[in-house]
Q: What sequence folds into this?
């Protein structure tokens, strides 16, 4: 009953006046209520905080204490020693040599200013070095060693060593840096290491490279980075609140990188490099049986050693801007028209497709014309070669014979057959950055240039001009396939690895064979016979290099035009003043012809005739190798 | 309407003559002293930072002592003008302020650089207390609506800088005045519900980093090495402190650089690691004592303006404490609110001690009571 009464409106007690006045008592009571409510809220929320603190600090204490201890463990990487690189006889091509740096542990130094002053009397300290040191001083902890000078000369090391007892907190730290004793001779092949840059940092396995400062940038150093680098170890160091190491908890040691033995013969490399004389160019020598690269020259080279510690911008610009382009790897990346060195392969294609009878003669008037076209494709010999069969065409390097043959083959058949020898694609050599060259076809031209193929382009492709472009490595591989009587091999520069801890030599490429060129072996014999004629018959274009040789060489010269001559001009009569526009001299060869042990490709830039300029280089290389290697 | 002079405290103590409150004074000295001790540990023994803070504290204490001498009547009269000036400065910051750490908070007057939003923390409750004391309490709906406008104006301007932490504190101090003025619980509940409804809308106005912080608060383990890292490392620091702590300067989390901002917003974690639960409780007790004293003084005040302002200032101090500790212990999202009187930094210390000064002034002067 009372319930219903309470809900009834009691009009008499309610203030009815719309005008409200201040009521001090009422406000006082209201305020007291609100203060009490606020106190209640404050106590309630404080209890929430306390509850949370109890939960974290009492109930969760063990778990969080463990997590905090884990945080106290610092992981220090133990950097592996980089593997060495040797040539096939065990001569060191890339080594690690110690350099000494001057470092200071600030907390051990009684008077830093005096110590720095004393040091600058012993070693030469530039203002930048002191500035850098001071910057580091603020950033690092007091017990950490801070470098003052990075590269000390032997004299400085000796002077410091004598005075070290009087210099507390001063340390001489040794670390290993990469050194390349053969410098420019193998600069492109061996490559170099340099400081890891930001791009590389993004794709590197950070666990492996924590602590590593250098990485292979080009050549073998780059291509075999993983093998040479080894595995990073680490030490787990427990630290106190200040970060000072207290004890080492665990220490999986680093595993040094594997040593790498190249198939390269550094002596042969030197012979080849020197044999190029004043010319720039490339020489590649391969053992045709195994695919082992015996020499891989790109001339001129450069000194890789400054790159290790960081080459100065000025020196780098000088190398980049040099007209000789020393940083450019001509053997792997330089693409050249093969010129007449392509003729043995074109001839073989003719035999394979049954387009030529090796004994049938073709009359060479000194020029060639496509049916119904007035344009004359000239032969290098102005009067022509007269009647020539396949062998004579190769021996004397008759252009007209191969113009005609290429025309009948058509570019697509030429492309299909020649690609078996590795033209137009990477040789598969175990080095990064190879240029695949160009072996044109109708499809290639449509895709690459968006244009249709003209018959005239087939004609000049037959003598290795026009769109055809090859690298020295490709040429060497192709001639090695000929030497192998059709067995296709993949060239490789690495022969053995020697991995710690057992340090046993392990062969890296056990089966270099890629397959066989599909053609009749008799056809191959015909071509090889003609190539022997190039060197050993009196009419051969490389006859001069057969003099004094007690073995048989099969070869082919090439003279590649660098710029085109107008129809009305004869470029042999032009006096070409600019050396850059002179012909490239090429030569491919293998020896001994019966049982080949070496296959060589030589490209001498702007040197002139292949027979006179490139062939002698190959002869020197072959001579040395056959004399100094076991068959 | 007549003015009557009444004496608040019949027995005049020497403290009264100095217009100081011994409890608030002692409390602030103890809190700042503890702050310096923790700061020394948090900075890894960097004395120069401690000296810098000491200088700021000296300045802040001067401000406190000076404000305590100002008569409440002056404060009352100046309230609307100070508020107006504060709003003008906030607009100026948005227009020409310096950008620091991605937010516009500073106004550079050539000689000094300051954050106007700090002053507004005091000016807003002052205006509210002034405004509400002119009407009978509890305030009518229209007075409440106007009050809400006076609160939201600076809050929106500060949030735009963007400085979410300060905006929240200003909002809290303004709402505290309304609460002490006695708005009905039902209206309070309706407003809270309304705020909850507006929350999703407010989300779209937040900056990306603010959204990140809230998401990380909700689920820090989702990205333990990224955005949730700070929250987790702070929890490890607190939890590993245990009951009695690792000892002063012995906290590994703070000194091995696992704690974010160990000397500013996360300094409570350093205390928790070094001194454990006991240290935390001691600090909390100190805060509660000071806040309690503030509320007591507010209650003893005779006029509406003084009561509302003192009550709000005391309560705001608690909001500071709760938001900061709540954030560090991981029950609130990370917003930039320092631990009052302990965190490194000058502006908030000056504002806080200024509010102490005002509380002292309000309770030690002869009152003008309008009735």
A:
């Amino acid at each position: 009953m009372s319930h219903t009464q309470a809900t009834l409106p009691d009009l008499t007690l309610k203030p009815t006046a719309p005008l409200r006045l201040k009521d001090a008592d009422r406000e006082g009571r209201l305020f007291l209520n609100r203060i009490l409510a606020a106190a209640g809220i404050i106590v309630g929320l404080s209890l929430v905080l306390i509850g949370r603190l109890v939960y974290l600090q009492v109930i969760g204490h063990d778990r969080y204490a463990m997590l905090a201890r884990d945080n106290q463990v610092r992981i220090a990487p133990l950097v592996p020693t980089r593997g060495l690189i040797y040539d096939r006889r065990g001569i060191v091509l890339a080594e690690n040599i110690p350099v000494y740096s001057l470092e200071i542990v600030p907390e051990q130094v009684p008077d830093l200013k005096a110590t720095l002053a004393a040091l600058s009397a012993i070693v030469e300290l530039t203002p930048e070095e002191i500035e850098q040191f001071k910057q580091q001083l603020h950033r690092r902890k007091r017990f950490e060693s801070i470098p003052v000078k990075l590269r000390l000369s032997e004299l400085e090391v000796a002077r410091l060593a004598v005075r070290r007892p009087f210099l507390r907190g001063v340390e001489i730290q040794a670390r290993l840096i990469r050194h390349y004793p053969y410098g420019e001779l193998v600069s492109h092949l061996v490559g170099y290491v340099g400081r890891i840059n930001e791009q590389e940092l993004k794709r590197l396995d950070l666990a492996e490279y924590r602590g590593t400062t250098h990485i292979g940038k080009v050549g073998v150093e780059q291509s075999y980075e993983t093998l040479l680098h080894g595995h990073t170890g680490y030490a787990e160091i427990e630290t106190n609140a200040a970060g000072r190491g207290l004890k080492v908890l665990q220490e999986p040691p680093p595993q040094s990188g594997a040593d790498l033995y190249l198939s390269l013969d550094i002596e042969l490399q030197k012979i080849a490099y020197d044999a190029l004389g004043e010319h720039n160019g490339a020489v590649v020598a391969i053992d045709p049986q195994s695919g082992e690269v015996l020499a891989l020259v790109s001339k001129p080279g450069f000194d890789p050693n400054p790159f290790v510690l960081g080459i100065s911008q000025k020196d780098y610009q000088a190398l980049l801007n040099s007209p000789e382009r020393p940083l450019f790897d001509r053997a792997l990346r330089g693409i050249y028209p093969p010129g007449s060195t392509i003729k043995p392969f074109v001839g073989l294609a003719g035999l394979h497709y049954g387009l030529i009878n090796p004994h049938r003669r073709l009359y060479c008037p000194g020029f060639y014309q496509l049916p119904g076209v007035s344009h004359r494709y000239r032969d290098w010999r102005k009067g022509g070669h007269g009647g020539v069969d396949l062998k004579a065409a190769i021996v004397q390097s008759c252009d007209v014979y191969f113009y005609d043959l290429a025309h009948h083959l058509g570019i697509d058949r030429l492309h299909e057959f020649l690609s078996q020898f590795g033209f137009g694609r990477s040789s598969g050599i175990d080095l990064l950055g190879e240029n695949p060259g160009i072996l044109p076809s109708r499809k290639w031209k449509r895709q690459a240039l968006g244009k249709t193929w003209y018959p005239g382009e087939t004609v000049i492709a037959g003598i290795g001009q026009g769109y055809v472009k090859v690298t020295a490595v490709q040429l060497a591989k192709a001639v090695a396939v000929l030497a192998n009587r059709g067995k296709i091999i993949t060239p490789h520069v690495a022969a053995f690895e020697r991995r710690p801890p057992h340090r046993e030599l392990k062969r890296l490429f056990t089966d270099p064979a890629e397959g066989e060129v599909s053609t009749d072996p008799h056809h191959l014999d015909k071509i090889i016979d003609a190539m022997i004629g190039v060197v050993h018959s009196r009419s051969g274009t490389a006859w001069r290099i057969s003099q004094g040789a007690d073995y048989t060489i099969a070869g082919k010269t090439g003279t590649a035009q660098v710029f085109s001559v107008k129809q009305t001009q004869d470029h042999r009569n032009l006096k070409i003043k600019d050396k850059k526009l002179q012909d490239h001299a090429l030569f491919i060869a293998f020896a001994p012809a019966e049982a080949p042990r070496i296959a060589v490709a030589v490209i001498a830039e702007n040197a002139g005739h292949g027979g006179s300029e490139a062939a002698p280089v190959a002869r020197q290389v072959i001579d040395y190798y056959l004399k100094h290697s076991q068959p | 309407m007549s003015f009557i002079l009444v004496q608040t405290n019949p027995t005049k103590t020497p403290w009264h003559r100095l217009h100081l409150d011994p409890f608030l004074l002692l409390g602030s000295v103890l809190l700042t002293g503890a702050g310096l001790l923790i700061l020394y540990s948090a900075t890894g023994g960097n004395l120069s930072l401690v000296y810098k803070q000491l200088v700021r504290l000296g300045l802040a204490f001067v401000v406190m002592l000076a404000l305590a001498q100002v008569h409440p009547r002056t404060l009352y009269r100046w309230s609307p003008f100070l508020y107006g000036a504060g709003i003008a400065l906030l607009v100026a910051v948005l227009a020409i302020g310096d950008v620091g750490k991605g937010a516009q908070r500073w106004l550079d007057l050539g000689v000094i650089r300051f954050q106007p939003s700090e002053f507004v923390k005091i000016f807003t409750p002052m205006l509210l207390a002034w405004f509400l004391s002119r009407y009978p309490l509890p305030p009518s709906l229209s007075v409440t609506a106007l009050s809400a406008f006076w609160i939201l104006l600076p809050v929106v301007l500060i949030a735009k800088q963007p400085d979410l932490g300060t905006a929240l504190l200003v909002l809290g101090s303004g709402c505290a005045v309304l609460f002490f003025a006695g708005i009905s619980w039902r209206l309070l509940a309706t407003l809270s519900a309304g705020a909850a409804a507006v929350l999703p809308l407010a989300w779209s106005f937040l900056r990306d980093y603010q959204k990140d912080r809230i998401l990380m608060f909700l689920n820090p383990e989702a990205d333990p090495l990224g955005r949730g890292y700070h929250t987790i490392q702070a929890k490890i620091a607190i939890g590993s402190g245990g009951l009695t702590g690792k000892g002063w300067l012995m906290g590994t989390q703070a000194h091995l650089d696992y704690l974010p901002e160990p000397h500013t917003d996360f300094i409570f974690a350093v205390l928790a690691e070094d001194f454990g639960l006991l240290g935390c409780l001691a600090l909390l007790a100190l805060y509660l004592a000071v806040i309690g004293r503030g509320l007591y003084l507010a209650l003893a005040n005779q006029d509406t303006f003084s009561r509302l302002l003192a009550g709000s200032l005391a309560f705001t101090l608690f909001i500071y404490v709760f938001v900061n500790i709540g954030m560090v212990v991981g029950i609130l999202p990370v917003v930039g609110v320092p631990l009052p009187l302990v965190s490194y930094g000058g502006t908030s210390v000056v504002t806080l001690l200024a509010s102490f000064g005002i509380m002292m002034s309000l309770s030690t002067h002869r009152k003008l009571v309008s009735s």
Notes: The radius of gyration of chain B is 21 Å.
